[in-house]
């Protein structure tokens, strides 16, 4: 059941990517956005995954999605007919792939093509149709691709658990809900009002206080002291000219206009604009530097870096006593020490490897102990329901692997 659900989501992600392009042309030509034309083929394809060993049944289940075309106009039929035939062809062929690598390739290709498509056709054809019809489907397509990449990067025994799917979907749904709330005018207006209140009511007075203090000291302390010094020098030189004394700093003329008392020394909005420009310049400089570093990093240098990482000293696990750690943290610490032992013996480790890929990489270690330690590690990391007995067993397994003869 879980596998059929994932197959349906995977097909829906592919169809939403197609719909982000096809719905724009359908809307510009007078058609409408019909979600049934995308949801029904994905649902039928997911159900057909339950009969993946029988071609007739899986093809028949997916062929039911052709009925959705009868509830739409000829423009929508022409636009979404390739999507229905795509699902039907994969079901007839028996192609049911579930791979994070495939989803990553599809997502990256979509991120490269869709911005160019939306900018070009939105400007030269119909910007309203692009924003109201195509863009929502593109956002949902990206959301589904991110969810599938997050789920399918784990082992099948992990991502087939309903509890893990619910947790992953919950975190992404919370992020999507936050983005939806920030797009609402009331929430956005309230956030802007709060930021303005904090900035102009707290930050601006705190920032202008040192400047106001310096200005007051310069006007009431430094300038009179300099005036007195120049008067004393003029008196000692024997030339106390009244005109000279009137021209000294700190002696305002009769027609000089002084600023009114209580006027602020600095405009808060100006200070905010200047601060924003400084942050923008710093961000652009940081981004430009990162792009230069990325361009200088070639695949050969990355491979060389991966080879040399194993020769470095292994990472140190935190040294806090086991009394202050939860059972999950103790098991993960034991598994980390086991990985460090593998690295000491020249086992290359890449970020894309899973715990199953690292199993048995060191032949002289006890493979049964490795499997038991990995089982406890999966329970602690994904189930988060490890007991103190599990933690003690993981530490005993790690010590047994540590004491194994080289």
Automatic annotation (TrEMBL):
Entry keyword set: Membrane, Transmembrane, Transmembrane helix
Record's compositionally biased regions (Polar residues): 298-311
Entry keyword Membrane: yes
rRNA processing found in the keyword field: no
Transmembrane segments: 15-40, 61-86, 106-125, 132-152, 164-182, 194-218, 270-288
Region (Disordered): 298-317
Protein name, entry field: DUF4129 domain-containing protein
